[in-house]
Design a protein that fits this description.
3-stranded antiparallel sheet; 2 domains; mainly alpha
Length: 121
């Protein structure tokens, strides 16, 4: 699975079924990219499209087989989590707060700049 597919599947896991437009908004991908991502997730059996009962022009994407997938990848992420705990243990609470602040501000700037690019495209 690609990082884009993982990202979208994670959003579906976190938020539950989403319209394609909402998934695009949350992920930062275009609706065209979402179509391809959902196509691949469907072929792999990890997503299912359903007609949106409130808007016949859109679909709702439902996650599938999440428990099975989590069972398969859980040990990998558990190992990663333990390794990352070793990294973060080296920093004080004050240093961790500064690092978190940096990343939150960076993410905000990146999202804002991405929105500007989309608006001019």
């Amino acid at each position: 699975m690609s990082t884009a597919e993982w990202k979208c599947l994670g959003l579906l896991d976190q938020h539950g079924p989403l319209t394609a437009i909402r998934l695009a908004d949350l992920s930062g991908f275009t609706t065209g990219a979402i179509t391809g991502i959902v196509d691949r997730l469907e072929r792999a059996g990890y997503a299912r499209r359903e007609a949106n009962p409130n808007d016949r022009r859109s679909v709702i994407i439902h996650p599938q087989r999440l428990a099975e997938l989590k069972d398969r990848v859980g040990p990998i992420f558990s190992s990663l989590g333990q390794a990352m705990e070793g990294v973060t243990a080296r920093y004080s609470a004050k240093e961790k707060a500064a690092i978190l602040d940096y990343f939150e501000r960076t993410i905000t700037v990146l999202r804002d700049q991405t929105a500007k690019l989309r608006a001019t495209a």
